[in-house]
Amino acid sequence: MNFLLVGFALFLLSAGQRVEALRNPRIQPLKHQKHHPRRVLGPSGGLRVTPRDNATPGKSWLPVSIIGVGASERGSRSISNEDFQDVLDTSDAWIQKRTGIRSRRVLLPNEPAGLRSMAMDAAEKALLQAGMKDGRDIQLVIVASSSPDDLFGDAPSIAAAVGASTAVAFDVTAACSGFVFAVITASQYIQSGAYQNALVIGADALSRHVDWADRGSCILFGDGAGAAVLSHTPGECGILGFAMHSDGRGYQHLTLPFVPREATLQQAVEERRALSSEANVSHVADAAPSSDAAPSSDAAPSSDAASSSPKVDIGRYGRLAMNGAEVFRFAVSTVPDVIREALANAGLGVDEVDHFVLHQANFRIIEHVAKELGVDLSRFVVTLGDSGNTSAASIPLALTAAVSENDDGSGRRTIRKGDVVVICGFGAGLSWGAAVLRWGGPL
Q1: DSSP 3-state assignment of 382?
Q2: What is the H or E stretch that residue 99 is in?
Q3: Dist. CA 171–CA 180, nearest whole Å
Q4: What's the confidence (pLDDT) of residue 441?
Q5: Residue 176 catalytic?
Q6: What crossing angle do the helices spanning 178-192 and 394-403 adopt, rounded to 10°?
Q7: For residues 217 and 207, what is the distance between their CA atoms, to the nearest angstrom?
Q8: What backbone torsions phi and psi does residue 144 show, to the nearest 5 degrees?
């Protein structure tokens, strides 16, 4: 009986709405109402669209904004194309034509904590721009890096150095997609209410791992660190949509592999002792603590002992290897699609984007993506000319440059509050992803 009464009440409500709709055409029955995007003018003069009903639930409208960014080249020097042409079969014209790169920054040698130092510097600048004196108000720190100073991860030590010692901190390894993936990950924690503020850092020093004799890859990579402070910001600014993908079937096209080398346990011990002796036990990483060292013996081990010693792997990580043609094909085919997907999740179109900030891998890739999307190249932020491919650092480096005042003395910035910005990363894995932001800060 109760169900019948409820049903009859709903019928009367619907009927009343329809009668009122006949009297006033501007009023439509509830079931037929459709929310249309409210369009307003933003600071750049373009149309702005508030969240749409056709945005994809779970992949859109996260009330999380970047409120501060920072970049660092601390402890690095520039290597120009001319430096390469003196030692490789290449030239400045050849490199610029194929990549758009004029020079790149590389960490100075003998800097064991060089990348962490860069990352700390970038983080401090981002915190300052966000109006935070230090990291005490940060609850989450994510460092995106494929070349950390410490293979166990740099995030906790960086967090402590910037005053976020009580924050949970961890590293993400997703190569050139790392910063985008880390921003989306941090945003989910903030969206859930677990944290209020997060610090996301993209930092890589791939110059430590390139094959300097391979002119096809060593000319591309540079070192750098960029950071962004993310915060819960209710309102129209935030992450409007995102998309992420990976496909391990193409992982072999861009790798930095571990190279195994078999040895007996006895050989492994002798080799480490020899290395420690050569270094005069000056590096903690190469010298075992004396309390843990095995008793030394001047007597040569017997052949029976050597043959019975168990086998171990004493290999090391090798050099970065890249199939440039395949990586290029992968990028120009997936990047336009993932940008469209992220925009579709946000309920937006390509024409509603003010700026595109792609991973700065190669200028030809950016040109191809612009052409495929039908977008003028002037809407793309390009900074790789003097920095090279800095992997996970490239997008935050570009964002920092774009929100800084232009060099023409006008005080203008490329990206301003209210602008719709697409960030997109792609690289090893293979992995790729994009996020659509309505820029909430810095101003």
Answers
A1: coil
A2: helix 92-99
A3: 13
A4: 76
A5: yes
A6: 70
A7: 10
A8: -95, 115
Q: Which of 81, 359, 362, 424 is the catalytic position?
A: 359
Q: What six digits make up the tokens of 249?
A: 């079937």
CA distances from 434 to 11, 35, 187, 425 (A): 46, 26, 13, 6
**Cα–Cα dist 233/334, whole Å:** 31
Phi, psi of 41 (to 5 degrees): -85, 130
The whole-number mean pLDDT for each consecutive block of 10 residues of the chain, a chain of 443 residues, reads 46 45 36 35 48 72 94 94 93 95 94 90 96 95 97 96 96 97 97 96 96 93 97 89 96 94 91 79 47 44 65 92 95 97 95 96 97 96 96 97 71 83 97 96 63
Contact 371, 333 (CB under 8 A): no
State residue 87's pLDDT score: 94
Distance CA 64, CA 265 (A): 52
Helix and strand numbers (H, E) in the chain are: 11, 20
424 is catalytic: no
Angle between helices 92-99 and 363-373 (to 10 degrees): 30
How many Cα atoms are found within 13 Å in the side-chain-facing hemisphere of 144?
A: 30
Residue corresponding to tokens 């195994």? 260
Helices within 287-346 (DSSP H only) = 303-308, 324-346
Q: Which of 81, 345, 362, 389 is catalytic?
A: 389
Angle at 269 between CA 267 and CA 275, to 5 degrees: 100
Known catalytic residue at 24 = no
**Can you give the pLDDT at residue 309?**
82
Catalytic member of 176, 218, 237, 424: 176
pLDDT in the model for residue 57: 79
